[in-house]
Amino acid sequence: MKKAVVMLTLVLSLAFTGCGREAGEHARKTAEAVEENGQGTEEDKEGVIMSVHTEERSMAKAGEKGKGTEEKGTAVKGKSTEETAEKGKSTEEKGSAEKSKEDKKAEEPKLSDYTITAFEGEKAMYASGAVNVRKGPSTDFERIGGLKSGQEVTATGQADNGWYEIFYGEEKAYVSGKYLQDEKPAEPAPVPTPENQPQEIAAAQAVTEVKNVSGVILVGDSRFVQMQANVGENSCTWIAESGKGYNWFNENAIARIDGCVGKGSKILINLGVNDPGNLNNYLELVNAKAAEWVGKGAKVYYASVNPVWDNPYVTEEQVQYFNSQMQNGLSGDVQWIDSHSYLNTIGYKLVDGLHFNAETYQNLYAYYMSCL
Predict the structure, then answer these.
(1) pTM score, two decimals?
(2) 134: which of 8, 141, 189, 256 fits an S-S bond (Cβ 3.0–4.6 Å)?
(3) Are 322 and 238 part of one and the same domain?
């Protein structure tokens, strides 16, 4: 029995070695004591087993406690790592914002990017139309003012891209070479206003009878919307919306014209008062589409933008410049109608600086029909 107790003690001791060396050592000593005292009873065996079990539970609790501490430490460490990552992310975003500012600053135009050739002497030049004055020789530079049509300036040099260096007040500034010329432009014809407009309209010069024309497609903005409302019943196809310009013409009106144009159609376009700055876009698109429409047997007309007076949207100088450039830039597929000069000849009445009274719309409509 004594040997059995000793063997049991050794087996149990080895079994729990992985849980704790102290428990195994205590069990070994207890077994030795039993052997030395010659007490190999079942009671002794149970005592050894209980001792080992007690030590096992103690070590297990200690292990659980240690595991909890380890998990807590891992959680704290994970939280700390997450906070560090967030802080790093914030720093990175801040760095990116700073870099973006630096890149933007680096992209700002510089005078040193251009070669300015000074004139041997100052020369007088004139604005061919309303134009912006800028701090540098391109539209990337800040606008600091503007010139009126015909305004004289002193040019001191020219940039390698064609822009002129001028005196603007007491500082140097720049104007696009497209809008300055050596000779003073001719004075525009006086624009009738409610104050100086003659009361008697030269009826003999006005078209008094409306000509009936078939297949007419009228394309325009609010001026055509109001004209349609004032000319009474007619057989024209009206493609007109208030406040519209080039974008509407390109994205909406063109498709509507394509849908109804055919042999014998007469397309009359009158746009530009809302966006004279789209001059080149109008020229390119109208010339391209006119070639298509003429190929289908249609005729294409472009009517000049008609007079304006004081309003917050467009000046008469801008209107006149737009008209002159459109007339010169349209292809041979497009016939020009100078309704601007016609109204200046017969007289007209504006009600808000942009729109006309009923009589003016009726006269203008009769004139358009006479040209088709």
Answers:
(1) 0.49
(2) 141
(3) yes
